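Subject: for your reference before the review

Hello V.,

The reviewers asked for a structural picture of the protein, and I figured it would be easier to keep everything in one thread rather than splitting it across files. Below is the amino acid sequence we used in the manuscript, unchanged from the supplementary table.
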Amino acid sequence: MPEGWKGKPHKLAQKDRDARWTKKNSKSHYGYKNHINTDVEYGFIRRYEVTDATVHDSKRLTHLLDGENEGDGLWADSAYRGEKTEKMLELVGFESQINERAYRNRPLSESQTEANREKPKTRAKVEHVFGGMVQSMGGKLERVIGQARIETQIGLKNLVYNLKRYVFWKGKTV
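And here is what came back from the structure prediction:
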């Protein structure tokens, strides 16, 4: 906290001291992240967690796993891949569908490359959730200050998204 702000409670009330800066693809972002687990078949958000922007998605993986979900597959990009993650998924009964990662002097084999082409088709369904929020629910910008308020705001947005999915699927069955 800057020295000059300590004696100015009104200025402090307008600053979000819980949010953090992070950099992705050389672009800076400030705020929070909505980590979600979605149902592959229907697109419902089954679990979510809100963190500041510096928390890597893979760090919240264990909090998002849902043993009651019908499928036992976990689709994710290569950022989630790691020996610990693979062992943990095997231990709790999930089948890893995480993309393979190439390393320096160790390119992917043809079979790994082919498998990596198939996995994003399922994984993209998670991105549709965020796209739907941007297109029809006011975007990603939240105008609240503080971790508790942002968690409430994002939780309500996730709930509304699920209600929209329910209305969509209800209309399909009529």
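For the response letter, the relevant points are probably these. The mean pLDDT is 86. Helices lie at 9-13, 61-64, 83-92, 110-136, 147-173.

Happy to draft the paragraph if you're swamped.

O.
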